[in-house]
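Researcher: Excuse me, tokens okay?
***
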Amino acid sequence: MSHSAFANSVRLAFDQGTLTLSGVSESLLKRLWEPNIWVSDPRSKGWRTDAIHYGEVAKRFSLHLAASWIDDVADWKPVVFPRQNLHSLRRDQADAVNAWFATRRGVVVMPTGTGKTEVALHVIARLGGSVLVVSPVRDLMYQWHDRILAATGIDAGIIGDGVHRVSPISVTTYDSASIHMPRIGNRFQLVVFDECHHLPGSVRQDAARMSAAPFRLGLTATPQRRDGMEVLLDELIGPRVYTQAIESARGKTLAHYDIVRMSVHLSEEERERYKMLGRTVANFIAERRVDDPGYDWQTLCRDSGSDPKARAAMLAFHAKRSIEDRATDKLRLIEDLFRLHAGEPVIVFCGSNAMARDVSLRFLVPCLLSHCRKRERKEILAGFREGRYPVIVANRVLDEGVDLPEVNVAIVVGGGSGTRQALQRLGRVLRKNRFGRACFYEIVTSGTRDEIRSRDRRRSDAFRKK
């Protein structure tokens, strides 16, 4: 086919998170794409597809149409860094950077504490183009802003938290990216998805699908999701290009560590109430299954909004879970561990806000919860770093992302059954520091579902004794 026949009439443009294409016949599209990614667009009398396909579309048009097409998509420019104050990379970090540059799309999996942020900063500096860094929460967004400023001298734009300042180097959150990508999706050559296991959520996927960035980097310590949707990362970002297991970094990049599982028992009063609540839930479900053999937990949750009996069963279930989380003996054992590690910084991870408050009030230590204001959070972490607070307690807010001071003791007194949360919490004590060997304690309520959750979340090789 003669390229001159197109007379530069083939035009590719960006529009509201999609690519629009004009001047191309359906027969040519079918030859270039199988299966066809394009849909007919009556409004533009052309074709349309998600912006995520830009890199592949540009490659195929450049190959088959040479100069006979017009690219009106890319609105990014080279970036000059005032300075490059980057740390030297370790061998494993350099391997991760080189593995990513081999394809310029893909996910880097490295344990918490091994320097994923440094890997990304080297990628950003070496690429030298417009970059958008996407984080799961605002605290991490500002953390990235500070790291970029320190490493490159660039005051990155901020998109989110009531600020909308778009710059060639910008930071945002997944939620803000999903909202604003229809307007800014062609402004960045590279998108860095931090903690990228969050991306496959039904709405957050839009942050990737509506971006035209041909280069994509995903960072995570724990790519697995309970819904199995991590398989979408290959499509949204690219294949896994580098993986480092905790075990391979143990004693090298990361500290040596001990994992100690300790059991406590319910008091007689707690045990009787626990059994009574369990019977309430079991009897309700058994009663419903007489008429509906398929009656399950999801149905109970749905019915609890309108059915008083279902709501009573739901409340009984949560009260039962609260007894597991807040067993009195857990507080006694926590006190023993505080004495054992006097003078060392300690983090207590809880399974509920209520238990976090119990620990905070019992031992008069600061409590970090998701609703804490940014100023309060910064003050508590600064006090922990300076030694004014020897202990901090949290529910989920410290599970991932937030840079923590040196700490080598973690006490887990509750949580979900997923390995991801467990690995994230373990990673909080594995950075090498002056305290030496790390200790990871898990306190479990014997004879309850707390034991089952503990067993499930310890399936990773990282929890095997060495």
The first strand starts at residue 10 and ends at 15.
